[in-house]
């Protein structure tokens, strides 16, 4: 992997979902799960649901090309919308609609948004760095993107460093590798050391884009690095993250898993002096751009959390279905709770869609979401899915957490007892009730609660990160001025600009 060209070795042109799954096979990656090296992740029952979820982005592009593909001016051909360089606010709105649909179809994190938002921010940041420093990052970026679109690949976003002591800057950490840094440069490229944490779909990608996780100072220059790394690069180790109830995927039967087909994936990726050829380096030491890069990334990515409204649609449906199966659906408080769930879900949607409609064009030509509305969207997402989940659990009843296992339903003695006593409405099979209870459990306490709840809280930045952005953009002085004018208070010149 000494050249940019050889970085593409083994990555085929992917047309269908099945092609995508095949493209992940036989890569001989150094992957660890439950203490053992995982030779072929693709067929592992814990890994496979996450691949199925990402595969849906390829299937949807074929089933609904208007929603999930777009015309690329770069290669003058239709491309998957997850690789499209947004050319208008309408493109961003279409992206949000696709993300909601993907959430509806999978009920989990389908792992392709962070990569899309990474390529979006790199369009403008590489352009701006070049304008200031006379570098050639933007042309490299465009060449990389053209090949990425031609092959229809998945790009993972490696932004979050382990970060060690949160009160210290990268160069101040006791272990300098707690933030990713450049450890060597030569004529052909540079070498990075460190790790990227919580990487969504890390193992299901073809390239990882490494980039700074926060603002950088002059002393952090070696930490201000952006590069495209193929998953097969030498020196990478992948350690698979556990998810709550993940062992249910190893059991017989598909009921107790809750959502047996689809799941998310997070991986800790360790970079042990990994080489990146210059052609794939998109920032090297321009530390003053790190903060702006993170801010622009979050403008895109915080609106991408609209995907959770697709999961919210599933939650509303699951709550209504279980209420119906329990014979409680006619009660007015049940209908009211479904209304409340829908209201919360659509509130998230409205802030995301508004942020896309209000997108503005940057110097490079790309459009970017309105930052305030994107932050409001993500801040809503840190709260409302929890309330929606609480209401779904309310409607489900306690059986959601006391339901015996599938094996007990199959046992000749206990099975008939359970079928007799766990009956809801008599015209519905007990198995339907079990399936719906397990789905709600899966999304609110189990594997896909990672995607629906905790990712909603911390992904794209913990709640305080949005509050900081809202504080920066809220223009309180202008608002004081509005209020004081109406109140008949004359502006005090001393206060101007405070
Ligand atoms: C499911 C999931 C998927 C994710 N996917 C990706 C991905 O694909 N790519 C990627 O790059 N990242 C990903 N992330 C990472 C995500 O962006 C981080 O979790 C988030 O930025 C918070 O960082 P942290 O987890 O290290 O928590 P911390 O930074 O440790 O935050 C924990 C708490 O401490 C507070 N805190 C942190 N630092 C300070 C400080 N200096 N002063 C005061 N308070 C502080 C925070 O506000 C928060 O309340 C994912 C996370 C999750 C949970």
Feature tags:
alpha+beta, Butyryl-CoA Dehydrogenase, subunit A, domain 2, Butyryl-CoA Dehydrogenase, subunit A, domain 3, 2 domains, six-stranded mixed β-sheet, 19 helices, 47% helix, binds flavin-adenine dinucleotide
What is the compact description of this entry?
This protein is α+β, with helices and mostly antiparallel strands and about 500 residues long. It contains 19 helices and 14 strands.
Measured between the Cα atoms of the first and last residue, the distance is: 54 Å
Annotation, overall tally of beta strands: 14
| Share of residues in helices | 40-55%
Rg calc: 24 Å
**Integer count of domains:** 2
Strand content: 5-15%
SSE layout and pairings?
Layout: H1 4-7, H2 17-23, E1 31-33, E2 36-37, H3 48-63, H4 65-68, E3 69-72, E4 77-80, H5 89-106, H6 113-133, H7 137-151, E5 155-158, E6 181-185, E7 189-200, E8 207-210, E9 225-230, E10 236-240, E11 266-277, E12 281-284, H8 290-304, H9 307-326, H10 332-357, E13 360-361, E14 367-368, H11 371-381, H12 384-396, H13 399-402, H14 406-410, H15 414-421, H16 430-444, H17 449-458, H18 463-473, H19 476-487
Q: Would you give an account of this structure?
A:
The chain is α+β, with helices and mostly antiparallel strands and 498 residues long. It folds into 2 domains: 4-286, Butyryl-CoA Dehydrogenase, subunit A, domain 2 (Beta Barrel), CATH 2.40.110; 302-474, Butyryl-CoA Dehydrogenase, subunit A, domain 3 (Up-down Bundle), CATH 1.20.140.10. It contains 19 helices and 14 strands. The strands form 4 sheets. It has a 6-stranded mixed sheet, with no helix packed on it. A 4-stranded mixed sheet has the order 5-8-9-12. The chain has a two-stranded antiparallel ribbon with strand order 3-4. Strand 13 (360-361) and strand 14 (367-368) form a beta hairpin. Helix 9 (307-326) runs antiparallel to helix 10 (332-357), helix 10 runs antiparallel to helix 12 (384-396) and helix 12 (384-396) packs antiparallel against helix 16 (430-444). The longest helix is centred in the last third of the chain and has 26 residues, at 332-357. It starts with a helix and ends in an 11-residue tail after the last helix. Bound molecules: flavin-adenine dinucleotide. Flavin-adenine dinucleotide is lined by residues 114, 157-160, 163, 166-167, 198-200, 266, 450, 454-455, 458-462, 464. It holds the Pfam family HpaB. Residues 16-283 form the HpaB/PvcC/4-BUDH N-terminal domain. This is 4-hydroxybutyryl-CoA dehydratase. Residues 290-488 form the HpaB/PvcC/4-BUDH C-terminal domain. InterPro entries: Acyl-CoA_Oxase/DH_mid-dom_sf, AcylCo_DH-like_C, AcylCoA_DH/oxidase_NM_dom_sf, HpaB/PvcC/4-BUDH, HpaB/PvcC/4-BUDH_C, HpaB/PvcC/4-BUDH_N.
